[in-house]
Predict the structure.
Amino acid sequence: MAAIRFSISLCALSCALAFTDPCAAGPPGKKPAPAASSEAKPDLGEPEAVAKERARLLFEKGVSAYREGRYYDAVDIFLETNRLYPDPKLSYNIGKAFEGMSNQPSALRYYREYLRRLPDAPDAREVESHVRQLEQSLSQKGVQQLTVISTPDGSLLRLDGQAVGVTPWTGESFAGKHRVVLESAGYQRFESVIELDPHRARDFNFELLKAPEKPPPDAPTSRPPARPQPKVTVFTLSTLGAGLALFGTALIAQVASGGDSHGISKTAAFLGGAGTGVSALGGVMLYFDLSPSSSGAATAGVSWNGSGLEHGMSP
C-alpha cells in the first residue's frame, strides 16, 4: 500500500496540503468527494484565517511526528487537525499512524472510515485490499470489527446489554448474533438483533423514530361545590325520642288506671298530649335538618365582593 498521504482540505477555499512521493495525497488538482452527512463540521469558534493557520501548523507537526516515528503524537495531532478542518484523507493518515504503533484494530477502524467518507477515492481498491488483510488478522483472533451508526448521532449504545459508548461507535466482538439497543433523548428506544460475519467487518446504520409528543395536561374542569349532605342533629333525635317516650308512658298510665268507663284517664291524656306536642316539635326539627336549603344556608355566608369596597378602611 502507498505511503501515508499527509493532506488536509481547508474547507471553503479547498486548500489541500499535499506532499510529494512517498507521501503524496493523490493526483494534483483532484477534488475530494463530498463528505457523508455525518461529517464533522469545522470548528468556527475562532476567525477562519486563524483556524486555517492553526490547522496548517498542526498538520506539519503531524507529518514531522510520523516521519520521526512518534506515531502516538501523530495520531493526536491528526485528530485535532481533522476537528479544525475535516478531511476524509486524514482518516487514512490516522490509520497509517496507528498501524505504525502495531495497533491493527484502530488502523482498520480508520481505513474503513476513510473508505466510508471517501468511497470514490482513487486508491479505494488498494485500501480495501489492505482492509481485507486486517479483517483476516482479526478473524484469526476469534473477533471481528463492527461499526454502529445512528440518526441522530450521540445515541447511547448497548451491545448485548452492556453500555459500550455513543454513536458512531466502532469496536470488536465475537462473530454471530448480538442485541443492539439505542437510546436518545426525544426519540423512541430502538432495539434490533444484528449478525457479525466472522471474516468481514460491517457497518450497521439505524434511524431512531421521534418520540410522540406528550399532550398538554387537561385544564381542570370547574365543578360546582359539592352540596353538603343532610344531617339529623342530636337535638332532633332527642326530641323525637322524648315524644315517643311520652306516648309510651301515656299508654302505660292508661293501662294502670284500669281502663274505666270514663275513657282516658287524666294522666294518660296529659302524657299523650305532651307526647303529641313534643313529637310535633321533633318532626319540625327533622324537616329543617333534612331540608337542602337549610344545610346550604349555613355555609353561604355574606359576600362582600359586589359592594365595591376595598379591604380595610380608607384613612
In short: Confidence is low (pLDDT under 50) at residues 7-38, 294-315. Residues 266-290 form the longest helix (25 residues). The longest strand covers residues 144-151.
